[in-house]
Design a protein that fits this description.
By secondary structure, this protein is α/β, with parallel strands linked by helices. Helices cover 44% and strands 14% of the residues.
């Protein structure tokens, strides 16, 4: 059996890099796609047959260049959308540049990928698995997180809709909703929020870790395991779902 080809968009980020590593460990040919740093990630993956490609997910033409029906990496078996940025602040003082950036990367970029993949599926119907990184922030609101939350809520609705559209081709789309993941993004968020709350970043991280009965942060590997499962044929019965990777409530 020939190796599967999996593309990880945002593959040089923390979660994306963990997904790349796990898929490579399991024998996939991994294409690392990102705005920068993709080559370094690809070179360090175990196994052979990996590739890297520069990709600006906010540029529709660039997305079609890579993933569309005439794209240089068309015909993949799985695509994981792990691109994402964050911003924290109350609605009353919304930074509109940050708002536009989050919408462009977290949500519009997913639409770009969905369009390119859908057109590629028209060309070559197959059991493609599309996996999009959302968040538990896409399941409930949170003071100070309105912009990020809105993008993640929207992403879940997008995935549910896309799943219905690509089913005719034998393809699937699912969302992964991690809780507080031990990552540079969360540590930066802790530092940003700590000043507003009058605590240290370390104290804020401990607060994040204590948000569930696990009393710990979720690891990058735990998120990657769920993404890899959804990317694989063994999850063929799942589509249009949002899988939460988090501890139980307190």
């Amino acid at each position: 059996m020939s190796a599967r080809t999996s593309i990880v968009v945002g593959g040089s980020g923390a979660i994306g890099g963990a997904v790349c590593a796990l898929l490579a460990e399991r024998g996939d040919h991994v294409v690392v796609a990102d705005l920068r740093g993709a080559g370094e990630v690809a070179r360090n993956l175990p196994g052979a047959g990996h590739a890297a490609v520069d990709l600006d997910i906010t540029d529709l033409e660039d997305v079609h260049r890579v993933l569309g029906p005439e794209g240089i990496h068309r015909g993949a078996d799985a695509i994981v959308y792990a691109a994402g940025v964050n911003y924290t602040g109350p609605v009353s003082t919304t930074d509109w540049d940050a708002y536009d950036r989050l919408m462009a990367v977290n949500l519009r970029g997913a639409f770009h990928l969905g369009q390119a993949a859908s057109l590629d599926l028209e060309r070559a119907p197959r059991p493609l698995s599309l996996v999009f990184l959302s968040s538990v922030a896409g399941l409930h609101g949170e003071g100070g997180g309105s912009v990020y939350v809105s993008t993640k809520f929207g992403l879940i609705g997008f995935v549910q809709s896309l799943a219905s559209e690509v089913a005719r081709y034998g393809a699937r789309a699912n969302a992964v909703c991690p809780g507080n993941v031990d990552s540079p993004l969360l540590r930066q968020l802790a530092a940003d929020v700590a000043g507003h709350d009058g605590v240290t970043a370390a104290e804020k991280l401990r607060e994040f870790a204590g948000a569930t009965a696990y009393n710990r942060l979720i690891s990058l590997r735990e998120v990657a395991e769920v993404c890899a499962f959804l990317a694989a044929p063994s999850s063929s019965g799942l589509s249009g779902q949002s899988v939460v990777v988090d501890g139980p409530p307190l």
